[in-house]
Amino acid sequence: MKRRSIAVIMGLMLAVCGWAQQQETFTPEAFHINVTEIHPVSYAAQYGLNDFSLTVRNDSAFVLMPYFGEAYVPSFDYPGLHFDQKYRGLKVATTKKKDGIIVTFSVKHGIVDHQFTVTAYPNHKAYITVIPSNAQTCSFAGEWSSVGRKGSSLSLR
Predict the structure, then answer these.
(1) What is the DSSP letter of 45?
(2) CA 19 → CA 12, 16, 80, 140, 143, distances in Å?
């Protein structure tokens, strides 16, 4: 009797552990990154950020991120990294150690072309590098989650 109850408890524990180990899959065409850090080239890094994100879904990039850096060619109508536009040239690769996914794409907003490189890992860590055509590179870090490809629309505040 005692062995049977131990076997049942062990079976339940294995089932729960197996369920907990099911991992969310990163989809290069549909993901959301909650940005918590910014690493500008010319300024000190900022940590503990809230309410900033990058979402890719339905052939568009929804960008709401801070930017700290120097502009090479100032644009007076440039709102920074706050836009939703269609992306171009989405490419997917794996990291050298094959433990992460690298997604690259570009977004044209006004007169500025932004090159995005997103590196996502199974532990939900994500790193973003943005290279604007008129300003310094800026890097970000945060955590990714999956989003549906269709459904409710996202909008910037």
Answers:
(1) -
(2) 11, 5, 42, 32, 21
Sole residue written with tokens 């990294």? 81
Stated pTM of the model: 0.78
DSSP H or E run through 35: strand 31-40
68 band by pLDDT with thresholds 50, 70 and 90: confident
Is 7 a member of any domain?
no
The answer as to whether 36 is a domain residue is yes
Confidence of residue 80 (pLDDT cuts 50, 70, 90): confident
CA distances from 82 to 10, 27, 127 (A): 51, 23, 18
Instruction: Identify the domain containing residue 112 by its residue range.
Output: 24-146
* pLDDT, mean over the chain: 81
Cα separation, 78 vs 87, in Å, equals: 18
Q: Which residues pair with 92 in a beta bridge?
A: 103
For residue 78, tell me if it sits in a domain.
yes
The total of structural domains in the chain comes to 1
